[in-house]
Amino acid sequence: MFDLRSIIALLFGVYGIILLVMGLFFESAAELRKAGGIDINLWSGIIMIVVAALFALWTWLRPLVPPGGSR
């Protein structure tokens, strides 16, 4: 059965990891100054990974059940 929550979790997870890596290793001082000293990529990546984990947990705790039976 197709569950969109798992696709959303995967996408959030992949983009979150990309942003996390960009924020940790590829952030310049000029980019930090533009953002007011906040590492936007790092924090966005962390938040996206948390959202991905929540979607995955939701999928695991409440799996889809086909209508009209338990098959």
Give a verbal description of the structure.
With 71 residues, the protein is mainly alpha-helical. The chain is 70% helix and 0% strand. The chain has helices at 4-25, 29-34, 40-61. The longest helix is centred in the first third of the chain and has 22 residues, at 4-25. The chain is rod-shaped.
Outline the secondary-structure elements.
Layout: H1 4-25, H2 29-34, H3 40-61
Oligomerization category of the chains in this entry: single chain
Largest sheet: none
Radius of gyration: 17 Å
Order of helices and strands: HHH
Principal-axes shape call = rod-shaped
Q: SS-based structural class?
A: mainly alpha
Strand content range? under 5%
N-to-C span: 11 Å
- State the helical fraction: over 70%
Question: In terms of per-residue confidence, which ranges show pLDDT below 50 for 5 or more consecutive residues?
Answer: none
Provide a count of the helices.
Answer: 3
Number of strands: 0
Mean pLDDT: 93
Label this structure with key terms.
single chain; 71 residues; mainly alpha; 70% helix; 0% strand
Tell me briefly what this model is.
By secondary structure, this protein is mainly α.
